[in-house]
Design a protein that fits this description.
single chain; 77 residues; mainly alpha; two-stranded antiparallel ribbon; 4 helices
Length: 77
């Protein structure tokens, strides 16, 4: 998919909530959004940036090496 523009504050807030809570469901609860909204937001952000900052191959989403190397992600697991 092509670049859809600059990520919004809300997209970044959703992504950081997933990283912080350790799950999509936790982020949904924290932000009072449906799980589908969180999943869609993270997928769109990944597409916009054309990078994979998180791995969802395991039960708990984790930052990839690329995600951990970003200055804004310093201090997160």
């Amino acid at each position: 998919m092509s670049n859809l523009g600059t990520p919004t504050f809300e997209q970044l807030r959703v992504f950081l909530a997933v990283v912080d809570s350790g799950s999509v469901a936790g982020a949904a609860c924290k932000l009072n959004h449906a799980v589908l909204v969180i999943t869609y937001g993270v997928a769109n952000l990944k597409s916009q940036l054309d990078l994979d900052y998180s791995s969802t191959g395991t039960r708990k989403p984790q930052l990839t090496a690329a995600g951990r190397s970003r200055p804004c992600m310093t201090g997160w697991k």
